[in-house]
Amino acid sequence: MEDSPLLLDLYELTMAQAYLRYRKNSLATFDLFVRQLPKGRSYLVSAGLKDILGYIKELSFSSSDLAYLKGKKIFSTEFLKYLANFKFGGDIWAVPEGRIVFANEPLIRVTAPIIEAQIVESFFLNTINLQTMIASKASRVVNAAKDREVFDFSLRRTHGAQAGLKVARSSYIAGFNGTATVLAGKLYHMPVVGTMAHSFIMSFKHELDAFLAYALTFPSRTVLLVDTYNTRQGILNAITGGLYLKKKGYKLQGIRLDSGDIVSLSKLARRLLDNTGLGFVKIFASGNLDEFKIKRLLRQGARVDSFGVGTNMGTSIDAPSLDVIYKIVEVTDEEGNFLPTMKLSKAKITYPGRKQVFRIEDKNGRFIKDILGLEKEKISGLRLLKKVVDKGRIVYKSPTLDKVRLALKSELCRFPQGLLDIDSDYMYQVLVSPALKRLQKSLARQLRERQ
Amino acid sequence: MEDSPLLLDLYELTMAQAYLRYRKNSLATFDLFVRQLPKGRSYLVSAGLKDILGYIKELSFSSSDLAYLKGKKIFSTEFLKYLANFKFGGDIWAVPEGRIVFANEPLIRVTAPIIEAQIVESFFLNTINLQTMIASKASRVVNAAKDREVFDFSLRRTHGAQAGLKVARSSYIAGFNGTATVLAGKLYHMPVVGTMAHSFIMSFKHELDAFLAYALTFPSRTVLLVDTYNTRQGILNAITGGLYLKKKGYKLQGIRLDSGDIVSLSKLARRLLDNTGLGFVKIFASGNLDEFKIKRLLRQGARVDSFGVGTNMGTSIDAPSLDVIYKIVEVTDEEGNFLPTMKLSKAKITYPGRKQVFRIEDKNGRFIKDILGLEKEKISGLRLLKKVVDKGRIVYKSPTLDKVRLALKSELCRFPQGLLDIDSDYMYQVLVSPALKRLQKSLARQLRERQ
Fold first, then answer.
1. Rounded mean pLDDT of chain A?
2. What element of type H or E holds B17?
């Protein structure tokens, strides 16, 4: 349902009919990019390309779609016939998933007959917005947790089920260690984890009964939730459970703190566990966590090994959308020549022409700046945009999720440390090439004169 | 895909296996409710029940689901056999869609064997969270716009495609007049609308060429976007287009302002349109709108007839999640007697027992307060929770979307005016019945003693 070709704004179709009528369906180029980073953020992590390619592959209007559109009585027979044969036949360049990107850098560049380029707009924006937003937020959580494990616990508060799945996948790309969402495990072959809920404990007469019932069912993978009634007593009950398992030759995996003062409770738990020979039992923390709280907990000496992070990451709560836009940057004239174009209205000026992002390394392989330039420019640096669709045919094979995840981890190490500090106001340098600046300036003059 | 039974947190399944092993699969009751309203909000609009019922109807584990779970090597053969025959066989009571609800009032109440009640938890929370959150936010936008039209333009920034569809539906329930999302129109039989994008104008040499091309394609449904280059000139070009259409016997539907000072630009546009005999042309505004901006625009005298509202509504930007929880309130003992239960941990105390929400009217039919009481109490008032599932069978027929929308509109009129003012700190009174208070108190004492 969610990759239906009707998953678009109505104006894409009405504009398309006008283009068709005026034989204006010539090639155009569009850039998809984030205009401004969310406040306090210093980079984005690209995600969503895999779904974009899946969508392009399947994109066609079913007879039921066409019947619905016909029933609206606003589309011409000529246009409905065009849609019946619709296929995406253009070129797409994109930044692979799991790369670091910055404001104004195209994540996707489409060159196609203008109708085709417009029909994919809503889906492309929607997909990149969600997945890049979440991967970017999750990457901050990973940075804050340093070498501790972090798990996605957000399903119950994500914006729908599909968002829950995409959050699991995008946060895993960003370095999360797994998710609680079982279906994400099945679909994306990623680790799934789980502990227990308060209701489990409350359905037994005594907390200890609940602990033992669970531990005996999963002797080698039990994490006991200790804050249902009284957390100190809960820790002691968990120790009783842990010692019982130990006697039977098993290891209690962990205890989970879900409320209260995590710093002091985790220190208490660590001490009590260590003093009873349960030093191997890990301490999990959850409950309204985000990168800021995790950083604070660790700075204050919390003895936490693993964090379960839910709502704040899964909704990107401080920036629940990206300023992601899809702008025309090039049109063709009657003779088929490409002419750069741009928007002029105040504060929304864009960079015209077919562009590439060049990432510049120093001699030690560390990244020092990006340059946004014209594609044809000869700038020596890594080129972020890769060709992924050639005349409608997919020419890029998405790597496995684990490969994407590892690639991001090693790419992050090549950036200055300031980028990874969640509280720093460090800004990585993104320059605009002189040629692109000149083009923008002369085009602005030309467009003002023409109108 | 999104209504798969695996759309849940892993712990629902591990707890289930422990329940099964310890023959603890007896009846329990869970309440789904919002603990606290988001800051600045005075009510919620219930939405999501239709999807809950659809999910309950289809809920079963496929052989592919079971094979995946088996492969995880954590589940017993006995448990997998149980899942293979799994069906939801409990009772569900729910507040119908499009009703006003407040903090602590159960939106859904489930009484079922505890495994069944837990397996539906993640889906129920996820579904109610998204749809109730959006309907509640959208209702504020409708209140702020007073009698002006408001349309959902949010698809490109919602959290995925499914969220886009649910936002269109939920905002329509709340009183929006339609959406730009075509698939929502097809699936939910709701109105779809559209104007044009900047790219359309930029793909023509002159703005006026673009306006005429569109207007001649859709002579009776054209809304011209006037801010691509210079908004004043854009308005004049739109007037040229409008006069041309008028001469041909058509009416230009509107112009759209998407940036700049909407107050002064809309006044200018209104004057110019009126002075040229185009008084019937409507003015649309869009661009980062929400209830606060709409209220301000109207207070400052903006001459806007219709608002397109996107990201801020479609992500519920100031409260991108609800504090929605699913809590066990009743368990059965060995003899099958229902015993109320509750969570004791600090600041998270809940109301135990099987409850009902009673809405009290005055003699003019105006609502004056709600009472959260025990189901068996005799309190005269409207009972918000209705039985929707009886022993697994759906016994409630969801009304059409238009009926839900109208019912909400007329219900809202019966509340004090303060509730509808987006800036007021008015709080509708929700009391807890003396019997429920007594139960909570005595149970707290009992539980503390027991642990």
1. 95
2. helix B10-21
